[in-house]
Amino acid sequence: MSSLERVLLQIASALITEEVLKDHPLRTDYFLKTIREGLKRCHPFARILLQIVVWWIELTSLFFHLKPFSRLDYSTRYKIIKKWGESRWYGRYLFFRPLQVFIYAAYYSNPEISKQWGFEDRVGAIRESPHQSGIQPLPSRDLELSVEICVIGSGAGGAVVAKELAEKGHEVVILEEGGFFDRSTFQNASTYQRNITIYRDGGFVTTVGVPMILLPTGKCVGGTTVINSGTCFRTPEAVFKKWNDEFDLPFSSALMSPYFESVEKVLGVKPVPDQILGGNNRIIKRGIEKLGWQGEPLIRNAPGCQGSGVCIFGCPTGAKQSMERSYLPLAFAAGARLYSHCRVEKLHAQYDRIYKIEASCGRSRLTLYPQKVVLACGTLSTPLLLKRSRLEGGSGQVGKNLTIHPTAKMMGLFDEVIDGHRGVPQGYGLSDFQTDGTLSRGTMYETVFFPPWLMANSINHIQEKHAEIMRHYRHIGVFGFLVHDGPRGRVYSGPGGRPLIYYRLGKREMEFFIKGLKILGQILFAAGAKKVYPTLWTVSEISSPEELEEMINQKIKRRHLESAAFHPLGTCRMGIDPRSSVVNEEMQVHGIENLWIADGSVFPTSLGVNPQITIMAFAARCAEKIHKS
Question: Would residue 567 show up in a list of annotated catalytic residues for this protein?
């Protein structure tokens, strides 16, 4: 055990409290192993920040108590952590919050502890795994290949392009930075272990700006489709109209309908059946209906779903049709090949063509000589690859115009048992509706639920109050929303080539956040919540609709919000004019005749709804254009 870990254990005992630990011991071996795994996989900035905070707490005690923190008696340590955790100074909050996240995750993710709070990973009937014959072994030596079409990325965009082109008779090779994980990973590992394994940087990617926003994405064969909730919405017609008016892009629901229909048929897209909605969805539905509004079950790509409740950590039964279970097996059946653990470092261009791709696969080098190239690395990584390859073009837009659909949530504490972890976590939603006689737009409301370790990190209390809420885990309901945001961010290259993401909420987005928080509270209280816990670090709980109104009427600032986001878009925007866009309406990079981009980075605005089906439909159209070329 290192000295850092010894201090961390003392901090954890004061944060969780010795009273709680008497009944639910810390399990030191598991706790430290989990901390080590999280630190190993997280972004270097997060690792450095956590070490700084731990040593700051340890050493500043010398000035006030003449002893380092780890040698103080429990009562004094308790008071110091209470002061840190309840501070309303933003600087202290920024430093202490990441430490809380690591400690709560390491403690509450222990399956023995989770079971005591009512949570168990449950696996129902298991579907047969599709044949993965196209996945190639890691090259044991440097390898050079000539290939017709190289697709870089295997997520929502890359998998669809690969399948469509392979079925049309083209030779396709897919390169994927992440590894392949079969169902045994999703059945035998805890949700936290799966989180740090299949998410980029262990799921700890965070934007830099005010507020700092968690932005998790997948890093595996199948991309973020493996770890999303399976929600499938077509692009709203109003978004197409905006693209037409502002960017001269000739898209409409009628034009894109055949592509949407094709994708939905492959994925088996249907509304969530009543029998697997689960308690959290039903309680939110009750609140919505009591207010006279009309919600509806969400549409998902999970035929045969059994409501295991852990969609965002990989589907354990195989019902969710993420890319490694749907499009990629079809691509392999048509002859496509995939190299995993393969990081593309550079594209080489001569005149107006890509002629060589350099990649590292484990300890070997892979060099490809393609006729055509499709980038589908995702909104955060595609612009960085273009920059590394000096293929930014003349628009100056590569890496800019980032939108992310920032979100907020509220938890409600109910008298009745809800067991929100059973059933589809994201199964019921509410979009446009009447409030105060006006139509509210800009937000999409969707249910959500978490395992105990994530729920613990959503509660803005500490110590005994935090533990008391967690004891009522089975009585908690959760509702959230995403904001249809503007281009408020950009992506830079950070340490080790990782994405460094700047994002700042604008005034318009803040208005939607404030309105959305009010509506969440109204719905939870209407559903029967006794207390409501908002995602504001300055407000820990609300006990009545009157207190909710008081919270909304106070001046809520950007830095008061705790937010996450899941849909980065826009960093290689589409447009007619090469001076203001990166790709044209066929998703072909301006000035490069054999390079296309088929991921969410091409969309000129955010969508206001979950984007996976839109990415897939546009990828199918892109494949059609490549075939015809």
Answer: yes
